[in-house]
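note to self: dont lose this again. the chain is below, predicted strucutre after it. 285 aa total, dont forget to put it in the shared folder this time
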Amino acid sequence: MNWLENGDVMSAIGEFLAEDIGRGDITTRATVAPDTRGQGRFLAKEFLVICGFDVAEAVFFHLDPEITEIETTFNDGDEVEEGTVFGTLKGYADVLLTGERVALNLLQRMSGIATLTRAFVKAIEGTGASIVDTRKTTPGLRMLEKYAVTIGGGKNHRMGLDDGILIKDNHIALSGGITEAVAAARATSGHLHKIEVEVTNWAQLREAINAGAEIVMLDNQTPDEAAKLVQMARGMNPAVLIEASGNMDLDRVRSYADAGVDLISVGRLTHSARAVDISFKIQTA
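---
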């Protein structure tokens, strides 16, 4: 099934439009004749990775099921330079005007995430590490934002709290320790669920691996500290998956990949990505 066919996504688009339109687009009603036909052009006003074509189409389709599909020679994931017209859309001008802002908000947001993710992925090219996202997403937009991460070349971490076991510092404190937390999770989780434990030092790393954690997250370590912990972890269990996390930025992400970790989780992919600049210029058709 196409990811956009998820009912939650389609329902959300209707809610986004309702929020913006309210009782009706009074400016368009007052200035544009209902039978006017128009053509809109999506213009990249800076370098970007395209993401969200299907979402933009769905916005306009929600307003008018007879709307023409976006005409383009590009796909989600393509890089375009400033000044590129990367898609056109024909339909009734009032539909194009009414749906413009919601479509652009989503397209700019998703393309911004994809563009930032691509930069992180390129920064660690040639290493064995992968860039992954987090749950630090905009409420209501998680599926769209995590899709954008994959378009940028990254991978998804947990989609939600029901998607995997990640024992962090608060869980450890409340359960009495790492060993106790892992044992409790093992006793109650399904056989398909792996257990990941957040650690901050060698003693915690050793306890987590001895307790049976399949994945360890090295939280807020320097690259040198991470490299030492990776070596220690591999010595205890060569199969353990190692994730690095904590205030990752483009200037130092490569050093963590070179330290030998398997995964680098980057919260800023979704919580701090800047919306890229895209315009939608409409003219009569």
